[in-house]
Write a structure and sequence with these properties.
heterodimer, A: 366 residues, alpha+beta, Butyryl-CoA Dehydrogenase, subunit A, domain 3, four-stranded mixed β-sheet, two-stranded antiparallel ribbon, 11 helices, 8 strands, globular, B: 387 residues, Butyryl-CoA Dehydrogenase, subunit A, domain 2, 3 domains, four-stranded antiparallel β-sheet, 12 helices, 14% strand, binds flavin-adenine dinucleotide
């Protein structure tokens, strides 16, 4: 056994920094909080979607081979950070993850049936993904399912594409998210099997990991915004003649929120880089990023509300909007316990490494 | 961004083998040695390392190191972890400060041994009446001709019973002037009037109260200008806190103590896995397959990954609290064996969880409490000073 070392470089390149700056100004101009509010209850804004399409955001993270611009998962994560920061009501992340999966199928020669690739590429047809299909049969809640016409899922050990000609009705939820039930036995839903067998399982696993990472990145954005809002309020608001940020009960919570944001951000970037460059290495990192971002966004947006006192729970306060988005953006994938179950693969790997280590080394036990 | 594996050169591989051989012949891994941040390497290992310039390998050969780079240093760290050896000499905190502020005599006579690691140091900041409020120190140093006479008492002088020198914070003017009347000294622990008595702590470890009665030392032992102690000690303090960690290369981003605690945490999880692999449930299957065990282990592994991703000064409070919470979690996972003492029949990896449960609360205290860290972090976030 020899020691292996890995680099720990989280820094963005100049190009990536420029992409972030472009996205930040685009979403702050085109998706101010008023747009987010007006898009409720569906959680989708046609005009913003058109802007996203016109600005080429849908093809940045697709490979050249299928008509994309050759970027990857990291660029998608950077988009996720900014989408979350603005709580932008567009299904960009679900769509691009699904298109990446379909693109891989196209690249390996799989026919997509009646699905019109060009229409997906242009964002005329919105595509989404059914993470819950990994574990459950029958009808399931699909993120962006109320705006998508096509959904990629995993049923009976095969990758399937579900399509419908009309929009599925939204399942009203906590955060005004375009969630909808998709039922494969519903006559309005056509189900096409695209790929079966071991290759399908592997491709689905990769797709599911990408979805977890992309979704985690949007939660990082929510953490950034809700943290900023709470800090700004805490240095303005006064009680007992001092600024409330001078109370440690407040400032230490603000620090903890910041820790939640930065650790979630770093974990998402690291998972994205490794999934992109070495998909075989520590495949649990995607679930780790998702689980951390989920628990972080739930507790930190709650703290952000609390810092505001009574104002925090008014519907008018921006912070309460982020609190609502936190749950419906994070739990649509099945929740933290599902992620923890997936992290189980790391237990088995480590147990194997430990067994080999014990074969070669003595250890004092008392 | 880059998380790729480093391809070790032939020299680096040979270096790895050399250290592995040294450690495997001079040391047997021991489950009990998991306090990788707090404990000190055993003398046998430290002196063998010192001979080769490996205690502070980043220093040049002429300075007592081995002129090695970041990768070699991380190889050393990884192997020490693998072999359950703490790799902790407070010296690295002090070397830059002694180089900058030490007297010519001190640099010639003492610094070389501190650089090689043949001499050891401990930290004399805290006192019975003040720990967090470090600048309220009362231990007094009074100049008398060209010597200083020191009187007072320090608390928590860890390794004070087995170090050659203490880096001592002393009062050299009116206490009312707080930060402006502090001066640093490097005091020989064998100077007449220095005494260390033990304080036994949770987990069975030892720290000390150290007493200084008319301890008389030459001005050569003064570190930095008189009454400039606060600024002199700020560099080692910041290093200990994990400030200034680079976010690239192979060094972990979570600061010195954060990384140390994370390594201990890793060992805790390994011990829990070893235990689960050695136990069978009533259904005859390995407890590694028990969903309840898996849930607890997965949560612990997740928390560990969070620690490795907590940068700079975030690293310590994150890892200290994760360590305590997960020692509890794993003790509960393996209840009731989780509470058995070290070496007891049937204990988890020889009692690793029970002993870490006892040790963990200290990690949220020493080197600055998690509250003090949060105060500092709040200021860095632009928040006002506490009311
Ligand atoms: C195992 C161990 C090893 C140690 N080793 C060394 C060593 O080698 N050298 C050395 O000099 N010291 C050492 N220490 C001392 C350590 O640095 C102090 O214990 C620590 O800084 C806290 O000081 P204190 O114990 O006096 O607690 P106090 O400062 O009295 O704090 C008590 C409580 O009040 C809280 N508190 C204090 N001030 C504030 C504030 N401003 N805001 C919010 N909360 C506050 C603290 O967080 C803590 O919870 C060690 C301690 C331990 C436990």
């Amino acid at each position: 056994m020899t020691t292996t070392l890995r680099r720990n470089d989280y820094a963005l390149s100049d190009e990536q920094d420029q992409l972030v700056a472009m996205l930040r100004s685009l979403f702050s101009e085109q998706s101010p909080i008023s747009v987010v509010r007006d898009a409720e209850p569906l959680g989708f804004d046609e005009k913003l979607w058109a802007t996203v399409r016109e600005n080429g955001l849908l093809t940045i993270s697709l490979p050249d081979s299928v008509g994309g611009d050759g970027g990857g998962l990291i660029e998608l994560v950077l988009m996720g950070f900014e989408i979350g920061r603005a709580a932008a009501p567009v299904p960009l992340l679900d769509h691009v993850v699904a298109m990446r999966a379909l693109g891989r199928l196209v690249d390996s020669g799989v026919e997509l049936g009646s699905f019109n690739w060009e229409s997906g590429l242009a964002g005329e047809t919105i595509v989404s993904i059914a993470p819950i299909s990994t574990w459950e049969l029958g009808a399931e809640l699909v993120p962006s399912g109320a705006v998508a016409r096509a959904v990629i899922g995993f049923k009976d050990d095969a990758i399937v594409l579900m399509t419908r000609d009309s929009r599925a009705p939204q399942a009203p939820n906590d955060g005004g998210s375009p969630l909808a039930w998709w039922d494969p036995s519903d006559p309005a839903v056509q189900v096409t099997t695209l790929l079966a067998g071991e290759q399908a399982a592997q491709l689905w696993d990769l797709t599911h990991r990408e979805w977890r990472i992309a979704t985690a990145s949007s939660l990082v954005g929510i953490l950034a915004s809700s943290g900023e809002i709470a800090r700004a309020y805490a240095v303005e608001r006064q009680a007992f003649g001092v600024r409330i940020a001078q109370f440690q009960a407040i400032s230490h919570d603000l620090v903890d929120m910041h820790m939640d944001e930065l650790t979630s951000r770093n974990m998402t970037l690291k998972a994205a880089w490794l999934t992109e460059n070495e998909p075989e290495f520590r495949p649990e990192l995607a679930s780790m990023a998702m689980a951390q971002a989920t628990r972080a966004v739930l507790r930190s947006t709650a703290k952000a509300v609390h810092v505001h006192g009574g104002m925090g729970i008014t519907l008018e306060a921006d912070v309460s909007l982020f609190y609502r988005k936190a749950s419906s953006w994070s739990l649509v994938g099945g929740g933290v316990r599902r992620d923890l179950q997936d992290i189980g693969r790391a237990i088995d790997r480590r147990a194997g490494e430990r067994a080999r280590w014990h074969e070669n080394n003595a250890i004092v036990k008392g | 961004m880059d998380f790729s594996q480093v391809e070790l050169t032939a020299e680096q591989q040979a270096f790895e083998k050399e250290i592995r051989d040294l450690l495997s012949t001079s040391w047997t891994p021991n489950y009990a040695h998991i306090a990788l941040d707090h404990d000190r390497s055993p003398d046998s290992v430290r002196l063998a390392m010192a001979k080769r310039g490996w205690v502070h390998p980043e220093l040049s050969e002429g300075e007592g190191g081995a002129g090695l780079g970041e990768i070699e240093q991380e190889i050393i760290t990884a192997l020490f972890e693998e072999f359950y050896i703490a790799n902790n000499a407070n010296n690295s905190l002090l070397i830059p400060t002694l180089e900058q502020h030490g007297s010519a005599w001190l640099k010639e006579n003492i610094l070389p041994g501190i650089r090689t690691g043949e001499l050891t140091t401990c930290l004399g900041y805290s006192e019975p009446d003040n720990g967090s409020d470090i600048a309220a120190a009362k231990t007094r140093a009074v100049q008398d001709g060209d010597v200083w006479v020191i009187n007072g008492q320090k608390m928590w002088t860890t390794w004070g019973n087995e170090s050659d020198y203490v880096f001592l914070l002393a009062r050299t003017g009116p206490i009312e002037e707080k930060h402006r009347t502090l001066t640093m000294f490097l005091v020989p622990m064998d100077a007449p009037g220095v005494e260390a008595t033990p304080v036994w702590i949770l987990g069975g470890g030892r720290t000390n109260v150290t007493f200084y009665s008319d301890v008389t030392i030459s001005d050569n032992y003064r570190i930095g200008p008189v009454n400039e102690g606060w600024s002199v000690m700020s560099t080692p303090l910041a290093t200990e806190h994990g400030a200034g960690v680079v976010t690239e290369g192979v060094v972990p981003i979570n600061g010195s103590m954060g990384a140390g605690f994370s390594r201990t945490f890793e060992k805790l999880i390994d011990g829990a896995i070893d235990w689960a692999a050695s136990r069978k449930g009533a259904d005859g299957r390995s407890r590694l397959e028990d969903p309840l065990v898996r849930l607890a282990l997965a949560e612990a592994m997740l928390d560990l990954e969070v620690c490795w991703n907590a940068e700079g000064e975030l690293g310590k409070p994150m890892a200290a609290e994760a360590l305590a919470a997960n020692a509890d979690r794993l003790a509960d996972m393996a209840a009731p064996e989780g509470i058995l003492d070290f070496g007891v029949d049937g204990s988890i990896a020889a009692g690793i969880i029970a002993s870490e449960r006892q040790h963990a609360p200290g990690s949220a205290i020493y080197g600055g409490t998690t509250e003090i860290y949060r105060n500092n972090l709040a200021r860095r976030l632009g928040l006002p000073r506490p009311y």
